[in-house]
Amino acid sequence: MKMEKRNYQICTCCVMDTSDEYIVFDENGVCSRCNEYKQRILPKWNYGKGHEAELSALISEIKRKGEGKEYDCILGLSGGLDSSYMLHLAVKEWGLRPFVFHIDAGWNLPVAENNIRKLTEKLGVELHIEKMDWDEMREMQLAWFRTGLESLDVPQDHAFIAVIDKYSQELGVKYILNGYNISTEIVADPSSWAKGGGPTGDGTFLKDVIKKYCRIPIKHYTFTNGFKHKFWIPYIKGVKTLKPLNLVPFTKAEMIETLSKEYGYEPYSQKHFEDLITKFLEGWWVPKRFGHDIRRAQLSSLVITGQMTRNEALKILEEPPVSEEEGKEMFKEVAERLEITEEELWRLFELPECTEHFKSQEKIYNLGIRLYEALGIEKRIRR
Ligand SMILES: [Zn+2]
After folding, report:
1. What is the total count of domains within the chain?
2. Residue 19 lies in a domain
3. How far lies 267's CA from each of 27, 159, 295, 298, 323, in Å?
4. pTM score of the predicted model
């Protein structure tokens, strides 16, 4: 969809603005996400309050189905706030026995590794580390840079869901604990910030980019696809992905406080800043190259859920996500790790925006979404 260049406008309620090409405002200048949140999300969610019975039924069900098995659920731990808090609740508060895994895609920052170690050690859970083949990950990362696309974290993100799919089949466990939460994530990144990508679980898209842009064969990487991820595993295998953080009341500040106190967890300056490549992309590359500041969505979530005022969020947005110096430092480090020169990375930075069309499962996805909507299965907000 080609849009006319529009005048700048920012929501009067949150801090989303016309950097989201498809943003829609009502007559009071309130964006459609804010309205949708107030009308549809908040009444049901109620800040996580009043869901005790639902939560306790869920925990009992997980325990009952897991009887006699080594694990009763699966949990992917990034070292970030959401999955760390999820692990804390699952083990310490709810007495669950998760299979805990972490994907090491080669970009981990020490702060994430320390957090993961502190949590798993204190909770006494075994950590399964899925170490990706670094030469392949490096080449795939370079391939995505070469496309000129904005969504450059696809190789890591796809690996994460493909590995969950793999484990859920191998272990025969029926529940996946997902750290998604309304409290800090209700305002999702706009789809206009990820043009030309397609769903993260779309293996067809990945394979097409690999075919066109990778210079070495990719042999060890784990793939999944829309059919397996959205249909086979949930409906035929009966593996449910749960988002239990929405059934408990908490704020971001409370999460940090609990984890710091209990485990010596170290918070970091921005969501997703647990690995170098994501920090570089979200803190430097994307704002500079595409003019999108991912913090707008993150801060808007905190504003509309009452954890921060709109003015506080605007104040934060006045400063860049990372300083000039830190940006320069990361630029150098990323080039080094990718084994290219800084000039080469600059050349990739200056590529025209990608207009190439890649193969994808978009049609199947859309068909699936319509089918699920007709069956009343699919209810989340989509943009
Ligand atoms: Zn808004």
Report:
1. 1
2. no
3. 39, 25, 16, 15, 18
4. 0.92
